[in-house]
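Example record

One chain of 131 residues, shown exactly as stored in the release files.
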Amino acid sequence: MNTEPHQEEQSRMPVDADMGDLLSSALDDGKAYFKAQTDYYKLQTSEQLGKAAGSLASLLIISVLAVLIVICSSIAFAIWLGTLVHSQALGFLMVAGVYLLTLLLFILAGGTSLRRSITLKVINSLYHGQD
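Predicted structure tokens for this chain:
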């Protein structure tokens, strides 16, 4: 009878040691999983920020070029109008008046919807990766 409890203790020892190894291995796997998830989210965030920065740079370049085109064509149009009315100053004043009316119409009619549209595009670009 004395041999049975001794054998029972010996058979438990490897199970306890295996359980410790199993828990240690599970903890290591959990740490590795958490690190991999963290790295994945960092990579995903940096990708989205990179796309947003690229879109912003592209928009900035297009905007600057569009402004230069508008300025040059406005000057040419103002000079042409000035020769028609025989006053360069009056030609520039008429072009400025057209821009003032356009600005007022934009503020009254479409300023809010354009702002919402741009905000929505930025949010979609950051969260969904859409361009």
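Notes: The CA atoms of residues 17 and 112 lie 68 Å apart.
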